[in-house]
Every structure is written in structure tokens, then in C-alpha cells.
Design a protein that fits this description.
Blueprint: H1 3-8, H2 33-45, H3 60-72, E1 76-80, H4 83-93, E2 101-105, H5 111-118, E3 122-126, H6 136-145, E4 150-154, H7 163-172, E5 176-180, E6 188-189, E7 192-193, E8 200-204, E9 217-221, H8 224-234, H9 249-255, H10 268-278, H11 281-299, E10 305-306, E11 314-315, E12 320-325, H12 329-341, E13 347-348, H13 376-381, E14 383-387, H14 394-412
Parallel strand pairs: 2-3, 2-4, 4-5, 5-8
Antiparallel strand pairs: 1-9, 6-7, 6-11, 8-9, 10-12, 12-14, 13-14
Helix pairs in contact: 2-10, 3-10, 4-5, 4-8, 6-7, 11-14, 12-14
The structure holds pyridoxal-5'-phosphate.
Length: 415
Amino acid sequence: MSSTLTARTPVAVPPSDGLWFGKDLSTPEPISEEAIERAVALMRSGRLHRYGEQGSGYPEPSLLEQDYATYVGSKYCVAVSSCGAAMFIALKALGVKRGDKVLTSTFTLAPVPGAIAHAAAEAVLVETNADYVTDLADLERKAATSGARVLLLSHMRGHIVDLSATRAICDKYGIAIIEDCAHTMGAKWDGKHTGTWGKIGCYSAQTYKHINSGEGGLLVTDDDDVAAQAILMSGCYMMYDQHILKPGPDVFERWKYVTPNFSMRMSNLAAALLRPQIGQLTERGRRWNHIYSTLERELAKTEQVLIPARDAKEEFIASSIQFTLNLKPHQIERFLKECASRGLYIKWFGVATPVAFTSNYEHWHYLAGKPDIPSSKAVLDQLLDLRTPLSLTNDDCILIGKIVAAATRLAVAVN
Ligand SMILES: Cc1ncc(COP(=O)(O)O)c(C=O)c1O
């Protein structure tokens, strides 16, 4: 066994009461045979870069862009190297410059403030409420006072704020919305795909997302100028004709001499792996939501667990579940330790030092000034997080509920 694997795999001894989980919650679904065959054929050809100076036909990323734009109902889609790259390109395409303020979600993960920092802009954090979504009163206050022209809205862990109301606030103050849909691919608000409510939508195809090519991102927009800039910035050199979805030549004429190439393209290989997965999203969503509702029911059996009800307009696809554990921080630490000793690794957004993928705004010391968010901390301090791989069975969900109940009983007793 490699030392990396050993370092990542804590050893816990199964307890005698049988409440032992032990499954790896970060196990992804295998790549389908169809996708593997396409990838192998591509490797045999050696043509892994999406652009070619000669030849005909459209490369895999152009076909993926077409499929995905049809799926969400957008005019354009640009395939890039990651969702972080998509968000960076989105900010640049909207003209965000050094020192500009960008409104963004407090409850999110590091690549979101990272994209703002990459664009040399300043993140202005907007409060997250007890439903784990953006506090619209705070958004309105900061839209009116911050001078920001862009909101980078993160649908963190698949929780979707009222997008009609968000758009109304942003329209009132002339603010463009970029949606971070890393956790909401396939999800909708009021029947319309997330990512299509604002000016630009950004999606991830990193392994722990709804579709998986290891790394990968998609940017969607209906705006001609944004699309042309995104194609050029992603690194098409002057081969934008190899995109199926593209604005007219006059639009590229406007941008081609003034737009830097940031080399953030998607490779043919990643696109070949992703194309068959678009067609699997609906079925995967159904399975994920079955797991979510089963876990929701089992976790709710513990009095201290609170799971916010979701709005009827929110058609989420839950690849994870979050819950509020109504305990003090030191009790939550005890809770987590007990769960881990039973082979159940739960993440905590109130954690004092960043752990693996989980960090919070208190760890992003590059943010300018002290964030003005008096109430988000209380939400994050009790917010727990569990990945829900599609391999989870009903029995697994019941067992997780029992372990959470047992660990809570122990933690409550800690003074
Ligand atoms: C909320 C959120 N937004 C954006 C990203 C960035 O995605 P990527 O890894 O494709 O850059 C992530 C990645 O985990 C994320 O969790």
C-alpha cells in the first residue's frame, strides 16, 4: 500500500456494538464503458488537444459544448479546464479589474474567493442564513453600498437561493450575476436550470461533482461578447472556428487582439469522458435524491439535528447532505471524534483549521479587511457535511442515522 493512501486512511477499530460504518464516502462512480471506449480510441489517435491546424470535423469539447448548452438551454457553452477557470474567465469577461469589489457567498469553498483573487479583485462576503443560502437582505444592503458590479453567487452544496428575488435585487443595482454551479449541475430553480439565471453559469467536472473527468469545467452564457472572450481566453489561439457554438466573426474581430490567452482549455480526453455522462444526469439525480431523503429521515431522528426544509421551487440534485447540529463547538468536536471512531467521517464547516477540502472564510487570509458578516459564523459553527456517493444503500443511511444519534448522546454529555 502506498504511503499516501496510508496517510489518508485513518485506522479505526470496529466497536463491539456493531455501529461501524467504514465505507469510503469519497468513492466515485466508475466511468462508463462507452466513455472508456471513446477515451481509448482518442488515445490511440494521439489527438488529445482540442484544436488542430488541419483536418475537418468538430472535436469532442465542441460536441460536449453543444450537448451541454442544449441540456441547460443556453446559447453558448465553453469547455474549460476547471470550474475555477470558468469563474476566473467569467469575471474577466465581465470586465472585473484589479481592486474591483465582487460580491460573493460566505458559505462556499476556497476556489470561489480564489477565482476573485486570481482576477486581482476584492471579495465582499454576503451573509449566509440558517437555510444555508445567501441572506437577501444583506445582499441588498451590500449591493447598494459596496460599489460592486458583479455577484459571484455560489450554490454551495446544492442549496439554491430564490433566484428570481436575487436577480431582481441585482437588476435594481446594475449588478451582473455569475452563478457558481459546481454543486448544482442538473438542478433548477422554478423550472429553469441554475447557471442560466444570471449572465454566466460555471460548472465543474472534477471527480467529486455530478459528472467526472478528474478536472474540467463548463461556462454557459447567452451573451455574444462574453462567449467570444471566453473562447479566446480559454486558449483557442485563432481557431475559434472549431467551436460549433460561437458568435459571428464580427464579434471575434472586436475581441481577438485585446483578449489574452489564459490556456484554460478542456482536453479532448476530458470531453470524451464527459459527453456520455450528460445523458446520465437525470437518473443519477433521481438516485442521489432518494439517498438524500432517506438520510434526511434517519438523521432527523436525533433531536439536536436540524435540516432546513427546501423551497418547492428548488429542484436540487443532492450529491451531499448538510445538517445543523445544535451543540457547542467542543461538543461537536467530541461528536466528530466518536463518528470517526465508528468509521464515519463527517466534515465540519466550523472547523478551526482547514481540513482537506473543507475551509471557511476565516482561513482565507488574503481577503481584504475583516468581512462584515456578523451572523454567518453561527451558521457555519454548527454546520456538518456528508458526501453521499451513489453507492450508499438504505441500510447505510439507517446506520449513519444510528451512529449520529449515538455520537450526539455522547457529545451532549460533555460539559
Ligand atoms: C463550491 C465550489 N465552487 C467551485 C469549485 C471549483 O471547481 P473546480 O475544482 O472544478 O475548479 C468547487 C470545487 O470543489 C466548489 O466546491
